[in-house]
Design goal:
Elements lengths: L1 E9 L3 H8 L5 H4 L5 E5 L4 E5 L5 E10 L4 E8 L4 E13 L2 E15 L4 H24 L1
Antiparallel strand pairs: 1-7, 2-3, 3-4, 4-5, 5-6, 6-7
C-alpha cells in the first residue's frame, strides 16, 4: 500500500477554512478540478465530475465537525489505484490565529502503475487542490 500527504498554510482561521471545505459536497466551491458534485446515498456519497468530464464516486467514511476532518473512500474513478482512503483535515497554527494548516492525505494500492507513479499522481492532485484553496482564501 502506498501513501502520500500534502499540507499547506492558508490565510484564514481554522473555522473559516472548515466552513468552506468541511461540507462533503463543497469541492466545487474551492477546487477548480471538480466543477460539479451531486449528492448520493442521502448525502453520504458524492458523484464528482472533473474538468475533463470524468466521473468519480466517493463515500464519506468518517466526519468530525469538532476536530475539523473527514475521511472518504473512492468507489469509482479513472485513477490507477484501488483501496483508496483519504482524509482532509484543518488544524490551527500555533501563534497564528488568522492562519490554518490544511492537510490532505491518502493511502491506496497502485493498479497497473508503479507505486511512484501513483504517489506522484495524488501528490499532484493534493498540491494543486491546496494551492487552489489558498488562492480562493487569499482572494
Amino acid at each position: 500500500m502506498a501513501s502520500t500527504s500534502v499540507s499547506r498554510i492558508v490565510p484564514a482561521t481554522p473555522d473559516q477554512v472548515w466552513q468552506l471545505i468541511g461540507g462533503f459536497h463543497a469541492l466545487p466551491d474551492w477546487l477548480p478540478y471538480i466543477p460539479r458534485s451531486t449528492s448520493l446515498e442521502g448525502g453520504r456519497a458524492r458523484r464528482l465530475h472533473n474538468a475533463d468530464g470524468e466521473v468519480i464516486v466517493e463515500r464519506m467514511e468518517g466526519f468530525s465537525e469538532r476536530e475539523r476532518h473527514y475521511t472518504y473512500t473512492i468507489l469509482q474513478a479513472p485513477f490507477p489505484v484501488r483501496g483508496y482512503v483519504s482524509i482532509l483535515r484543518v488544524h490551527a497554527v500555533p501563534g497564528e490565529p488568522e492562519a490554518a494548516e490544511v492537510q490532505w492525505s491518502g493511502r491506496f494500492t497502485p493498479d497497473g502503475v508503479t507505486e511512484a507513479e501513483a504517489v506522484d499522481l495524488f501528490t499532484g492532485i493534493y498540491s494543486e487542490g491546496l494551492e487552489a484553496l489558498h488562492t480562493t482564501l487569499a482572494g
